[in-house]
Design brief:
This protein is about 35% helix and about 5% strand. It is mainly alpha-helical. The protein folds into 2 domains: about 40-70; about 75-150, no CATH class. The protein has a two-stranded antiparallel ribbon. The longest helix has 26 residues, at about 45-70. The chain is flat.
C-alpha cells in the first residue's frame, strides 16, 4: 500500500473510473446479435424465484460478515472481483445488453461470465512480468490488481 498510495482512495466510486484500457467486444463480420425473448413465468413461479433470490442474498451477506469477523486489516478490493474493475468500451455496452421483465440492462464493467475476461486479466498480469524479480509472487499478484486500478 505504501508503494501505491494514490490507488487507495478514501471512498470508492460506484462504477470504476475510466482508464487507459477498456474491455472491448469485437464482432465478426456477417454475424448477428442473439435475440431471445425473456422467459415468461407464472405469478406463483415468480414469487418463488424472488423468495429464493432473497434467501441467497441473505446467505451471501451472512457469509461475507462471517469471513470478516476477527480480521485486523481490510482492503477495498479482492482478486475475485478484479473483473468488475475493467470498464466495457462505451461503444460495446449495447453488445452486453439483456432484457428482463423489469427493463433493459447493459454491463458498464466486465462481467465475470464473459469469455475473454480471463484473457484480458492475463494481459494485465503479463505487463507486469518485468517486475517478477523485484516482487515475490504474492506481491506481484497484488501489483497486478493495483496496476489494473491505475490504468
Amino acid at each position: 500500500m505504501s508503494e501505491f498510495p494514490e490507488v487507495f482512495l478514501d471512498d470508492l466510486p460506484r462504477v470504476s473510473p475510466e482508464r487507459e484500457i477498456d474491455f472491448g467486444i469485437d464482432i465478426l463480420l456477417g454475424t448477428r446479435p442473439i435475440s431471445i425473448p425473456p422467459y415468461i413465468m407464472a405469478l406463483a413461479e415468480l414469487k418463488k424465484l424472488k423468495e429464493q433470490l432473497k434467501d441467497l442474498l441473505i446467505r451471501f451477506l451472512f457469509d461475507l460478515a462471517s469471513h470478516l469477523q476477527g480480521a485486523t486489516f481490510f482492503c477495498k478490493i479482492d482478486l475475485k472481483y478484479v473483473y468488475h474493475e475493467l470498464r466495457v468500451r462505451k461503444s460495446d455496452i449495447l453488445k452486453t445488453a439483456f432484457r428482463t421483465r423489469y427493463g433493459h440492462y447493459g454491463f458498464l464493467v466486465m462481467s465475470f461470465g464473459l469469455t475473454n475476461s480471463f484473457a484480458m486479466y492475463m494481459d494485465l498480469m503479463n505487463r507486469l512480468k518485468i517486475h517478477e524479480k523485484i516482487y515475490l509472487t504474492h506481491d506481484l499478484e497484488w501489483v497486478v490488481v493495483v496496476f489494473s486500478l491505475k490504468i
